[in-house]
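Q: Could you predict the 3D structure of Response regulator?
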Amino acid sequence: MIRVLLADDEAMIRAGVRAILGAGEDIEVVAEAGDGREAISLAQAHRPDVALLDIRMPGLDGLAAGEEIVRTLPGTAVAMLTTFSEDAYVARALSGGATGFLLKSGDPHELIAGVRAVAGGAAFLSPKVARHVIDGYGAQRTVRSTDARTRTAALTPREREVLGLVGEGLSNPEIAARLHLVEGTVKAYVSAVLDRLGVKNRVQAAIVAYEAGLVRH
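A: Sure. Here are the predicted structure tokens for Response regulator:
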């Protein structure tokens, strides 16, 4: 079972997300929190596989709570629940170690897939979130796109293919199945891509993939 801590200051949101996750037979919500401090305390007590955190919460927000959970509980993956109005927080969450960005109003299957992905050590950036964030760069979009294309041009064709699938949110086993490779080979490709792009994690790599036009959907 994938054990999840759910944190959101709105009880109705928690109930809705809990119901969605409950549809996944391999997912169990083991604790719920209404603010960041409670989320940290419950994470330390339950040591869940995934901490699913609302960004905006009273007292201590989800960003700060996520940073503390990443720092103190390396076995717990952090995913942020977000809305389109919170693009400015994405960079901080990325640097703080979050590996998932999921929409509260997104497709239920996407929410379940995201939790499964981050629990498995992969990253999941909702395609709608990624596209909206990239569109939000405004005047900088062309510059960032050109920079991303330049960076990815140094990759081999296979590395660019792997990067595109990382951008789609696929885990290493899923990429291996898609490309008919063994999982260890995919892991080596992903590590090489992260190193050559100079990014810290798969979510940052996914953003580069979007900016470079390597993601198909």
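Q: Anything worth pointing out?
A: The chain has a mean pLDDT of 86.
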